From TrEMBL:
Cofactor: Mg(2+)
Alphabetized Gene3D superfamilies for the sequence: 3.40.50.2020
Protein name: Orotate phosphoribosyltransferase
The gene coding this protein: pyrE
Record organism: Archaeoglobus sulfaticallidus PM70-1
Record key words, sorted: Glycosyltransferase, Magnesium, Pyrimidine biosynthesis, Transferase
Amino acid sequence: MDELKREIVKKLIENGSLKFGEFVLSSGKKSSYYVDVKKSLTDPDFLTLISKTMLRLAEDCRLNFDKIACIELGGVPLAVALSITSNKPYIIFRKKKKEYGVTSDLIGEINGERFVVVEDVTTTGSSALSVVERVMERGGKVLGVLVVVDREEGAEDVFKEKGIGFIPCLKASELMKYSKA
Ligand SMILES: O=P(O)(O)OC[C@H]1O[C@H](OP(=O)(O)OP(=O)(O)O)[C@H](O)[C@@H]1O
Ligand SMILES: O=C(O)c1cc(=O)[nH]c(=O)[nH]1
């Protein structure tokens, strides 16, 4: 697994996804760095690497899932890639309901299946938690949350409290450590 982590770090760096400066995060928090995982998710090699890593982590943790769930935007390319690698269907939640056409906030179906949630980055975990809650409200079961980079700013505790597995491919501290190696 260590080798996969190093490959992920290498790709994130090559793709210019680790940025230093002054950033405002989704939660309103300020940060001196930003991990632009979405930029790397435009790279087919990164998509392949991440989906293989996520499938391996899910297998190692015995997450016997039927479907994949995500929220736009960052989760979508991940869900598509993992769907192709695992041959399991996926669903997408919209951040907001549409006001025309098909107005549901859900694309795909939930019929009591077992889900893994995928997310590009977790900071507070609130975005991934909204997916977990929305799957459960509709009768789905959530086995775990798989994330590319966890910034170690609270998400782990959020899911521990809920009794839901939280499985980052990489922690921010590992990203910083390996990026200097
Ligand atoms: O753990 P949290 O504190 O919720 O922060 C992480 C969330 O923030 C980012 O999304 P963003 O809100 O920037 O939306 P986007 O995917 O549409 O770019 C990221 O993709 C996660 O979804
Ligand atoms: O918390 C966030 O909004 C966030 C942090 C980060 O490093 N990368 C990202 O895409 N979002």
